[in-house]
Amino acid sequence: MPSPYRALFALPGTKGFSAAGLLGRMPLSMMGIGVVTMVSQLTGRYGLAGALSATIALAAAVAGPQVSRLVDQYGQRRVLRPATAISLAAGVLLLLAAHYGWPDWVLFVACAGIGCVPSVGAMIRARWAALYRGTPQLHTAYSFESVIDEVCFIFGPILSIGLSTAWFPEAGPLLAGCFLAVGVFWLTAQRATEPEPHPRTARRAPSALRAPGLQVLVATFVATGAIFGAVDVVTVAFADERGRQGAASLVLALYAAGSCAAGLVFGLLRFKGAPEPRWLLGICAMAVSMIPLLLVGNLPFLAVALFVAGMAVAPTMITTMSLIEEHVPRAQLTEGMTWVSTGLAVGVALGSAAAGWVIDSAGARAGYGVPAVAGAVAVVVGFLGYRRLSRPAQRRGGTVEQHSEREERHMA
To answer: Where does this chain mainly localize (predicted)?
Structure first.
């Protein structure tokens, strides 16, 4: 590991909460695909399986920001443990209902309950921000977390699908629940690095989504999420049309690997000036990287194209996290990060649905038009909202000198 990354873990407790965060985040990439695999194996109903997966994503999009808002107000330990308990109980209900063939509405209720799962990634980033706010190490920390996200998306689906198909159908979601339980309860046991709650500030303040800059980021990431959701679905269909459905997981893993490699390098760089131009450049790069997918004719070419496309993902995500810290009050940082994840989740659901419709109508290759269109929408939203992002943020708990410095930087 390069020295800047080693230096992150010089402070006590950083290794512990980072390891707990890795375990707690694995269900993000395992649960949805695990439910699809489990239900399709047990019932043969792919429509039901997809609807249940979408229910989990949409429930998380609704509940996630509210859970994070409570975390900002009362602290991680007091909120995450009961929220996780609700999610785990709903997961048990889902496994029982699927195994014993209970009515469909029970499955949907269970999936809605699973959506109470906390955004562990936002909790870990909030801990890094509390430790390294205002230092170059925070950029490195956000880069490291983006790499961890990609590691989860490389190995999570492989574990979930592999266990459910090789062992028993419920194995994938069951392991995801175990990861969630161990990760969250281990994380919340580490009190020394837990960010200080802001009960009075959070109680008086409106939702973090009222911040104009955050609105731009969330709207843009709805379109960005549509890219991710569409690429996943179309790639599976593209491989299936060529009789090699099993190769889809490897191709998608290369997409995540490209992002992982770029995130590692990006974390070693030190940038001067405002982050807003880098963010807009990243959005444009993600959109442009979708164009070659329209020309793919075979899986090897698709694998190369997706690896290159992935290289634009992590740098854009890292810069987005830095912008959230500048445009959201410190007392609502966890909520702000979760809103961006929520926009991403909503986009994934929309992109998946749109891609499925196009595939059914015109085939898998035409389906790559969906991420291309989503990328174009992300660019348009980014340009339209750029002035809100580049505008000096409101006072958010820093010193007067810090806010004056930022205002002068934008006026320069």
So the answer is: membrane
| Rounded Cα gap, residues 368 and 407, in angstroms | 42
What would the pLDDT profile of 205-262 be if each residue is shown by its tens digit? Answer: 666 666 777 888 889 989 998 898 788 778 877 887 787 766 777 888 888 888 888 8
- What does the pLDDT look like over 253-296, one tens digit per residue? 888 888 888 888 887 777 777 788 888 999 999 999 999 998 88
**How far is Cα 122 from Cα 32, in angstroms, rounded to an integer?**
19
**How many whole angstroms separate alpha carbon 302 and alpha carbon 235?**
9
Q: Given CA atoms 77, 81, 83, 87 in this order, what sign does their dihedral have?
A: positive
Answer for the pair 32, 176: CB distance below 8 angstroms, yes or no. Answer: no
Q: Round to whole Å and give the CA distance between 48 and 105.
A: 11
Half-sphere exposure for 124 (CA within 13 Å, toward CB)? 27
The token pair that represents 9 in the structure block: 């873990």
- 302-334 pLDDT, tens digit per residue, is 999 999 999 998 889 888 877 887 777 776 777
| 57 has a pLDDT exceeding 60 | yes
CB of 57 closer than 8 Å to CB of 352: no
Q: How many CB atoms lie within 10 A of CB 13?
A: 15
pTM, entire model: 0.75
Radius of gyration of the chain measured on its C-alpha atoms: 21
Q: Rounded CA gap, 213 and 219, in Å? A: 10
Q: Could you give the domains of the chain?
A: 1-204 (1.20.1250.20), 208-412 (1.20.1250.20)
CA 66 to chain centre: 16
In eight-state DSSP terms, residue 397 is S
CB atoms within 10 A of CB 213: 21
